[in-house]
Amino acid sequence: MSAPIVSNDAAPLVEARGLTKHYPVGGGFFAREKLVVRALDGVDLALRPGETLGIVGESGCGKSTLGRCLLRLVEPTAGEVRFDGRDVLTLPAADLRRMRRAMQIIFQDPYASLNPRMRVGAIVAEGIEVHGLAEGAEKRRRVEELLRQVGLGSEHADRYPHEFSGGQRQRIGIARALAVGPRFIVADEPVSALDLSIQAQVLNLLMDLQEQMGLAYLFISHDLRVVEHISHRVAVMYLGRIVERAPRALLYANPRHPYTRALLAAVPVADPRHRPVRAPLQGDVPSPLKPPSGCSFHPRCPYAEPRCRSDVPALVEGAGGHAVACHVFPAPTE
Ligand code: ADP
Ligand code: MG
Known about the structure:
By secondary structure, the chain is an alpha/beta fold. Helices cover 31% and strands 21% of the residues. It contains eleven helices and twelve strands. An eight-stranded mixed β-sheet has the order 6-7-8-3-9-10-12-11, sandwiched between helices. α4 (120-130) runs parallel beside α6 (166-178). It is globular. 41% of the residues are buried. Residues 23, 25, 37, 39, 57, 59-65, 288 line the site of adenosine-5'-diphosphate.
């Protein structure tokens, strides 16, 4: 199974322009120099209804910050976010609260985000209550329906989170997100804590729900192979920026950016006779407190040229919607 088909001419549901988040850190009151973590640095994106944009990069590249800024769970330092054409960042509190119904998030570790002292039925019902969507028998009916939709039974409503496996807990987290009728879901490493066989089940569930409800997903993972299955388009992030973005088939068939290619080379291959020919990634992600000059990937890049140390490469879109930010391997022109 692969991601459901999306209409190409639908208006974007979620749009970001120049989205930036700098966290001030340390320094102290008397410090001369203010230090900032450049967690997110000028990200543009657009997401249509029913579409999944995969976001990939090593830990610390700003993926979670991007997801949280889109939902305004953290306040961006600069930039613009539009949801359904409305400016999310200037919305008054009451309007933002209403909009929150339409924008939900699911996390890597559902156990940490499920209250251990609440029964599953109450956990799933919470959003319905907060937004005054249903009461009494109607509320119970909706909770049972939600549990069924995510592959659990109505009898599970009376149990506690610890009575469930990791995969089932993620299903509870998904039911809770769906309870308020969202149109956009940020899925932040939703299967990273699960066994491989369970990962596939949860990915298939997310794709089924997308097809039924036309949900848009920002699907975050550090693993390019996980997002391949579910994404319509994939964006690769490095130190707070998108370095490559393309429709799924183009990205995996013709990865351009040396960072994307290194990430693909790091993925274990199923057939050991076909070992990756490219060198895997050396070293760690540099600190976003002091990102390298020019292309921030240049210290780890086997192809770096002098201009890569001085000039920041712009993300330029080429043929087929394939965008690359690299001086040496620009976007394909045909
Ligand atoms: P990812 O999800 O890709 O692992 P994050 O968005 O969590 O990356 O983090 C991006 C960078 O921002 C990291 O260097 C992280 O340490 C830093 N960061 C995240 N949250 C905060 C915070 N509240 N204060 C300071 N730095 C933060
Ligand atoms: Mg993260």
